[in-house]
Sequence to fold (291 residues):
Amino acid sequence: MDIQTIGIVGAGQMGNGIAHVMALAGYDVLLTDVSAEALQKAVDTITGNLDRQVGRGKVSEADRDATLKRIVTTQALADLGQSDLVIEAATERETVKQAIFEDLIPHLKPTTILTSNTSSISITRLASRTDRPEKFMGFHFMNPVPVMQLVELIRGIATDKETFAACRAVVEKLGKTAASAEDFPAFIVNRILMPMINEAVYTLYEGVGSVESIDSSLKLGANHPMGPLELADFIGLDTCLAIMNVLHDGLADTKYRPCPLLTKYVEAGWLGRKSQRGFYDYRGDVPVPTR
Ligand code: NAD
Fold:
């Protein structure tokens, strides 16, 4: 399968990173979002991140300019019709993703591979509601996309070998490493990572430690580069809660019960870095713990 044009749905933290690495690797990128503001912010972020890579001597000025030229933004989902591969990276809500695929499919070529960057939602279930379950799979990048080496590739029950091989070839062209995961709730990385983050929120909720002591403990005591609450803010607390709900519903085990404090932060709109407030307040010069 010859993949040259990649459509990306959702231009948030993940979508802009995916657009960045795809265009830098030489793919033509069509990036869409319902929000014009998100598209503009994505282009500004990609430009800033490429400038930083130029500053560090990792990317030439000519490659930066060519990369930016390969990214076309649009608010019309139908403009992604010519994509050879689509990566859906919109909000982590099944109804949102399902509606995107329904609206997009009539515009696609029959050969287009459809993928989702979902952190947790069933690939098999998303695939079953499309016209091409054999050409559907999970393409799960890590955050921040330009920095993180891993891409989880998730096979749905119907995904065919050609589709998997084509996606693995894209990961190789990006210079990243693929890990293959079967389609069970939250796959590999988040099946292990999210319960740890949720447990850190319980530790805070029960008063065992403060935000600072919990994060310091895991950084200095377990050699983690970021504390779990800092990491939760980085991922987005809405995304963390959505993943815990998928684990809880999908595996029907109370050990995945989302911490009520995590729910409270999300209900307050304190979603972490992206909304300037979460377990830390980012509105000043240095992050300040909110508890
Ligand atoms: P985000 O909130 O930063 O961005 C989501 C974007 O989707 C927003 O710009 C929103 O306007 C857009 N959107 C919503 N509905 C849409 C629609 N119908 N059509 C087009 N665009 C739409 O979220 P994010 O962190 O970028 O997460 C996106 C996806 O990536 C989720 O499925 C999430 O689980 C997954 N993911 C997130 C992380 C992470 O660390 N944040 C890591 C890996 C995967």
Notes: The chain has two domains: 3-180, 188-287.
